[in-house]
Amino acid sequence: MMEEKxxxxxxxxxxxxxxxAQFEPxxxxxxxxxxxxxxxxxxxxxxxxxxxGVFDSVLWSQSCSSPALLTYLSTLELLxxxxxxxxxxxxxxxxxxxxxxxxxxxxxxxxxxxxxxxKIDLEGIEKDVDKLESQDLRPELITENxxxxxxxxxxxxxxxxxxxxxxxxLNRLKPDLxxxxxxxxxxxxxxxxxxxxxxxxxxxxxxxxxxxxxxVLCGNIQKQVWWVxxxxxxxxxxxxxxxxxxxEDEKVLKLVQRSVQIAHLDAMxxxxxxxxxxxxxxxxxxxxxxxxxxxxxxxxxxxDLLKRVLSGKAEYGxxxxxxxxxxxxxxxxxxxxxxxxxxxxxxxxxxELLSEEIEMFRASENNxxxxxxxxxxxxxxxxxxxxxxxxxxSSLNMAICHCMRDMYHYTRVSGLHVLECVMDTALSAVKRxxxxxxxxVLSLFPRLQPLLAVMGWDLLSGKTAARRKLMQLLWMSKSQxxxxxxxxxxxxxxxxxxxxxxxxxxxCYQLDLASFVACVNSGQSWSSKFSLxxxxxxxxxxxxxxxxxxxxxxxxxxxxxxxxxxxxxxxxVVPGIKFQDAIEMISMRPIxxxxxxxxxMQDVELMHMRYALEFTxxxxxxxxxxxxxxxxxxxxxxxxxxxxxxxxxxxxSNIPRKILMxxxxxxxLHMDDLSLNLTNCASPGSHSxxxxxxxxxxxxxxxxxxxxxxxxxxxxxxxDILRQNLPSAIFEQENTLSSNITDGRxxxxxxxxxxxxFIEDWEWRLSILQCLLPLSERQWRWKEALTVLRAAPxxxxxxxxxxAKYDIGEEAVHRFSLSPEDKATLELAxxxxxxxxxxxxxxxVSRAADGTSAVQELDLSSLRTQLGPLxxxxxxxxxxxxxxxSATMSQKLLDQAQVMLSEIYPGGSPKIGSTYWDxxxxxxIISVTRRVLxxxxxxxxxxxPPAIQAILSGENIISSSKEFHRQGHRERALAMLNQMIEDAxxxxxxxxxxxxxxxxxxxxxxxxxxxxxxGEGSYTNRKVLLNYDKDGVLxxxxxxxxxxxxxxxxxxxxxxx
Length: 1057
Known about the structure:
Radius of gyration: 64 Å
Shape: rod-shaped
Number of domains: 6
Structural class: mainly alpha
Largest sheet: none
């Protein structure tokens, strides 16, 4: 019982707070009642909501000023209960939507009432205006006071329509899950509110004044209609009367939506008539294509609006910026309407207008650039030069941004890609050689500038000036700046350059190389300030007014650079390039990777190799020229060239290349007349540079010393340079060789070993050269020194024997591992020379008193043991004829040879076998040796005969040569006759006629000689024979003599009287 009393008491308190419009106390008591009787508390709230907060005698307060607000607040509390919508056929979401609808209509109605109340107060009409605030008393007040209707009929009509809409909202909150009598239901209208479009159009002014509230109201209606159309509650019991009322309500609600849209469209049309674009735009956010109005109505209004907005799209300026802001406002308002179809319609209309503009552009004659680019060009052309730089840059950047935005729309509507369109336009400008225009086009996408520079390169074939300007505009002056400014955008520094940018660097380098060649070809000096690569952002002063460079040269170099390396092209077209210029041009070559860096290092080494060879040739050529130069300048130049050779060899770090260079220089040392090709390898100006620098750091006192010391010093310096550039040991080669050339290590070791042997051999020969002097007791000349340095070991041994340097000869025998014959020759020559010296210095009186001879007996048994009898015989003849300085010593040697010859002559017949031809060869040598010995003995049998060496060198003339000739012919004829007789006895009769012919010829030779002696021959023949008699001692062909041709002799005969 106690609980029932408490519940009853709380119910009464709740009702009191309700009629006092005290919602917070009302809510508090409901919460207490809910704790005791939840069903009762829920029923109270459901009753308040179902009645729409309309109760008699409610004292409305500021915290709860209207029934709609009370209903809304009560709904919020009701939704906290379980099964809150138990008396309705719809769910809680629909309940909330219907309550919100009631609150929105009440709010709009209150605003209209408040506006009307203010107007009544201003006009001073004494009426009970407070009744306007009451929904129940408002119709009575309007009906009783005709003056009020006449004063503001539109507002009054609006209030009536709003009251009907409010009544509709109240009816939609009534409970529909109740059982009623069918007769009663059919006899009543069921609270259906009927409104037509004409009545709702009275709200036009109210709709525009409260557009935001009506927009929310239409959104609420849209949600309610959607819930009705998609209602799947599945309730089995619904009254036909409720279904009919729901359909009627839905029609009225949709009619409200349509009226709101028509009101906004009419307002937009009026604004368009008045050219109030801002007013039109302000209504776009309230448009919605799903609110019952045909799309054509929207389309007509929006199309007129966009035409007005886009009419200011002439050029980039203040008008265009205003147009852009208006267009953005149109899209912004459309997006705020939360209607996707509206945004799409505006975009379609916009695209149609752009398509019309594009068609007009294509139909025009000047259609080279798309309209956005034309506007950008016009904007840049109209920029005033006196404008502040910062303002100009800001305006230009803004225009570029807008042009880019227009280009996106242009390409989108045209069905193109924006980058493709930009590149096509830029390439077209490059083809017309409008390079600045192309640069302006690519200001939209600066990163495309390297690509355009590369693609435009081929479009400007043969036009080097245009190519240079293209690279300067698109790569150096723009892209490089962009790359520096945006370098922070890259995560890795190595990722900054793309392959296209590297290609641009390569093309700039090719232009620099071509300009260098053209400059050198025209005889002018080239400076790095002409370089595209090194100029950076600064403009380059490429040509002066007096420069007349042949474009053919530049194009020729560019064509070759397209298929050949810069190093090859540079040295092919400028063979006389200076080293400093060459290293500067090669160092400018852009590096794109570690491989490119390695290639450039290889190029630099190849340059060092090239100049090393050049200075080697120059140094050797200068030494050859020094033979005819008495001033000594060539000696100085030769030493300067060696200094430069050393520098270039030091610049080669690759060990195999150093070995190659040393071997090439060694090969050059074996060549003569290198000075003949100096003009092909010497650099222009090299001689002057070297002559000026030799007086400074290259100055060396050694070159100024005359004669032997100069040649020795030069050769020693050259050998030192070669030795320093060879690896010190094999392991050094192994450490420096890469795995790619390990297979070539044996070849490198072999070349290194040969080079070291050559250097050691020449150093030894150089020491010999210091100990020897030429025959004429003068100093060595370069070619004479080369003869000694290049001489074969046997010739070097002969030179030592001729100069009586037997100790050096013995060293040469051991050094070169000469044959035993050479060693025996040296020993015999040394004995002969020693014997001659002893014979010349001993006192002749002593010798006569003692009866002894200074010439000691010679024991040739050791020589014969070492060489064999035939070789020992030939050695004695050789020494007697060439080394012996006295006839006595020659006679002694010839006697020894005769003794050894008698031991082996005549010998046996040759035996058939593998050595048959060797035996025949030995027999022939013995026969010739016997005749030579006989002839030499005859020369020494004369009275006071000279040394055989003097006879053979032509210093002495033999007077009895004619008799010797005749004796030789007789012996020849007798020998032939004896041989024929012997063959006849043996039965050998083959070739007898030929042998008889030879015998007759020998006899005829003797008769011819006799006629010559009698003076019967011609003068010419006698002179030839006399010449033979003068120089020949052993017969024709055994000694190289100065022959006088028969034709020359005949010429002399013709000249004489």
